[in-house]
Specification:
three-stranded antiparallel β-sheet, 33% strand, eight-stranded antiparallel β-sheet
Length: 337
């Protein structure tokens, strides 16, 4: 895939689609989207170690005045920052009389239960045991050994990404009625992009699929153009990989923003009142560019982040419907794949 311009880069990242193809006349992809290929990639992803680490939210949502609260596989979890700014995490149930610590404030790095004032610094106390926490600069991870049941790892499997200080980062969170594998399967099906999301993607071709061979990159290589306005697009080549069971990474390898990543993390929440599984999608966009004007974009990050989250939300409105449909069919023995 040629990027054009001096040094292999266009002067402007935009291209003009000279012969756009109507949605209904684009080349069908159903023959290429073989269920066995998607299922094989999913099975290999599920076999990779996670070390029992789960993404619970964005790093910037972990504050020093109130906890970030999540439920992971039915386990109430709270996370906050201690007096030195380090993340700490633990059960969200007060060990005294079971108060919901999600509603309690943080004062000088200490979580103070709002029922009776029991103070938790993040160290073991009164039967309350902390969970290992890891802040990678974009996302907060918590290790739950009782939930994961794997041999624990000292740190989560964090994908390689541009340094946050030189990137524009945004994190979107959505929730669907499905299991993590349904979210991962959605991301391991790149063929649906231009059909299911025509408002965002056009001219999509899957240029390479994983074969599961040891030593090869177990990923899908995709040539695709992101729609900007009208016939203006940004063409890129991207590779989709799954470094651990609940994560899929799309990395731009050619075109504008080389090295930028979109990380999709699926975190099981538990079941709803009808016993159906609920899963959180935490998607981190870490965008970088060598263009001089990108520094201005980083400076405008507070204004751009809501726009990036809105774009991700529109895509995941569709993709969560895909994942929920997959789970519904699987759970009733009707899934054809």
């Amino acid at each position: 895939m040629s990027t054009g311009g001096a040094g292999g880069r266009r002067r402007l990242p935009l291209s003009l689609r000279r012969h756009p193809v109507p949605w209904e006349r684009q080349r069908p992809t159903w023959r290429e989207a073989r269920p066995a290929v998607i299922a094989g990639a999913l099975k290999r992803a599920q076999a990779r170690p996670s070390g029992n680490w789960y993404v619970v939210g964005a790093s910037r949502d972990v504050r020093g005045d109130r906890p970030l609260a999540r439920t992971v596989a039915g386990q109430e979890v709270v996370a906050w920052r201690d007096a030195a700014g380090r993340p700490v995490a633990g059960p969200g149930i007060c060990p005294h009389l079971g108060a919901p610590l999600r509603d309690s404030p943080v004062r000088c790095g200490t979580l103070v239960c709002h029922w009776h004032g029991l103070a938790l610094s993040g160290a073991p106390f009164a039967g309350w045991e902390p969970f290992p926490a890891h802040d990678d600069g974009v996302l907060l991870w918590v290790r739950l050994d009782a939930v994961g049941g794997e041999p624990p790892l000292d740190a989560p499997v964090v994908p390689r990404r541009p340094a946050p200080a030189r990137a524009l980062t945004a994190v979107y969170t959505g929730v669907g009625t499905c299991e993590p594998e349904d979210v991962v399967a959605n991301r391991l099906d790149p063929w649906h992009g231009a059909w299911f999301h025509p408002y965002s993607f056009v001219d999509l071709t899957v240029a390479g699929t994983p074969d599961g061979a040891r030593g090869s990159e177990d990923g899908f290589t995709v040539d695709v153009s992101f729609k900007v306005a009208g016939r203006l697009v940004v063409p890129v080549r991207a590779v989709f990989t799954a470094p651990e069971p609940r994560t899929v990474v799309m990395r731009v390898t050619e075109g504008e923003g080389v090295g930028s990543v979109v990380e999709t993390h699926a975190t099981p929440l538990g079941t709803d009142e009808r016993g159906r599984p609920r899963t959180a999608v935490v998607e981190a966009v870490v965008a970088a560019s060598g263009r001089p004007g990108f520094a201005l974009a980083r400076g405008a990050a507070p204004l751009l982040r809501p726009l990036v989250r809105a774009a991700a939300g529109r895509l995941w409105q569709d993709d969560l419907a895909y994942a929920e449909r997959r789970w519904s069919l699987r759970s009733t023995g009707r899934y054809p794949g």
